[in-house]
Amino acid sequence: MTTGERPLSPHLQVYRWQITMVLSILHRATGLFLAFGTLLLARWLLALASGPEAYAEVAQWNSSVLGRLFLFAWTWSLFYHLCNGLRHLAWDSGFGFEIPTFYKTGWAVVIGSVVLTLIAWLWGYSTMGAF
Predict the structure, then answer these.
(1) Which of 109, 106, 130 is nearest to 21 (CA)?
(2) pTM above 0.90?
(3) What is the pLDDT of residues 13-29, one digit of tens each?
């Protein structure tokens, strides 16, 4: 059996990037990021139960620039995954399979996740002063 001039499988360098492709990759990536963030949430809860010293250590990291950046990205991932999950739920119900609808709902997911993230953080700052 010779391999000769067999065609290669399609890969990311062959395809032209489209919003639907990017959204699919982001959905998977945000799912992984949410899983990792949930481990840090469990760490925060354990610190809360362990006493003031452990909680102060976690709170200090959360209030650092890196901690806030991570929390902001985690919040966006949560809202992105939620909005895209609702989009997939509509697909499971048989709605939204037309190409123009794919693009409209895709952009709605992106814009909706950004808006919901900003609302959550602005609400957090206005009611709690700071996270």
Answers:
(1) 106
(2) no
(3) 777 888 988 999 999 99
